[in-house]
């Protein structure tokens, strides 16, 4: 039995459909090596743990974490997920205000011609 099956994880090398990824975000916890996975889980307020990215340095992950006021410790190795204690993970609420601040700043600085029509914009 694969590790993902044993502990009830969804595994993706690349997400073929962004809607599938969003649907999976209703999970209780996200383990992500990709920066996109960390950002999307933050945007939806889902707790997450950073997993060691393959073939990448860590600069962009630390840069993002600093931008939203999140402390980012060393990533968890893929092989350590099965024994990971979710109680040790940083709750998204701990830095939710910084995520909201970054979201508001993006909305106000995004070029007007590219913004969604007001009736389509979300909060």
Compose a concise summary of this entry.
By secondary structure, the protein is mostly helical.
List its traits.
disordered N terminus, two-stranded parallel ribbon, 5 helices, 123 residues, mainly alpha
Description:
This is Exosortase. There is one protein chain. With 123 residues, the chain is mainly α. The chain has one domain (3-114). It has helices at 3-7, 18-24, 35-43, 59-67, 96-109, and strands at 30-32, 48-50. It has a two-stranded parallel sheet. The longest helix has 14 residues, at 96-109. It is globular and about 45 Å long. Residues 1-7 have low confidence and may be disordered.
Tally of extended strands? 2
How do the strands of the widest beta sheet line up side by side? 1-2
Given as residue ranges, the uncertain stretches (5+ residues, pLDDT < 50) are: 1-7
* Element order: H for helix, E for strand: HHEHEHH
Name the helicity range. Answer: 25-40%
- Mean pLDDT across residues: 74
Integer count of domains: 1
Characterize the biggest β-sheet: 2 strands, parallel
How large a portion of the residues is in β-strands, by DSSP E? under 5%
């Amino acid at each position: 039995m694969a590790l993902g099956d044993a502990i009830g994880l969804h595994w993706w090398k690349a997400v073929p459909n962004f809607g599938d990824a969003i649907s999976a975000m209703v999970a209780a916890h996200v383990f992500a090596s990709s920066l996109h996975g960390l950002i999307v889980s933050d945007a939806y307020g889902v707790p997450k743990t950073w997993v060691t990215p393959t073939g990448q340095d860590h600069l962009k992950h630390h840069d993002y974490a600093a931008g939203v006021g999140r402390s980012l410790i060393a990533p968890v190795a893929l092989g350590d997920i099965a024994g990971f204690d979710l109680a040790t993970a940083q709750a998204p609420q701990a830095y939710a205000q910084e995520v909201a601040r970054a979201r508001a700043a993006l909305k106000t600085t995004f070029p007007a011609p590219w913004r969604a029509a007001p009736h389509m914009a979300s909060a």
